[in-house]
Amino acid sequence: xxxxxxxxxxxxxxxxxxxxxxxxxxxxxxxxxxxxxxxxxxxxxxxxxxxxxxxxxxxxxxxxxxxxxxxxxxxxxxxxxxxxxxxxxxxxxxxxxxxxxxxxxxxxxxxxxxxxxxxxxxxxxxxxxxxxxxxxxxxxxxxxxxxxxxxxxxxxxxxxxxxxxxxxxxxxxxxxxxxxxxxxxxxxxxxxxxxxxxxxx
Length: 201
Description:
five-stranded parallel sheet; flat
């Protein structure tokens, strides 16, 4: 293949040396979370949202007021999760958060989205784990099935279209979509409809 210098005969990958050393205290906290509480949080029905938030906070997550976390949440490390006020997390969202994930107020993360703070450095033979935090601004909408990679920041008021793959920062106030995700147009927010017009719908 043109431009390809890598062949399996020259490969020097050895995953036997691939091991991330976590402090014992972190390992114990993860064992308690994943062994006792993660499944419970995932399986609780929607009406038990308040209890789900109580468990998440007890496990170390920082969660503001009036948040909604739907069933099916897959959360790796709860103490690396920060939700400001009025954040909604849809069904079956996965937060793979070796590093911090911060989601600011009035933001929606829709169902089946995957926020991943981790990767591997493939330039080293043992491909060590690397991780960088993710930050989602306020008043954003991350639509269904979006992938957001390590180190990404989403600007205030941005919309990320369904099934987008976001591997770099997205600007505030823009509608963005695609694989790779890119800004498409400014987000325009209309005035709230009056009660009279809503009744006529």
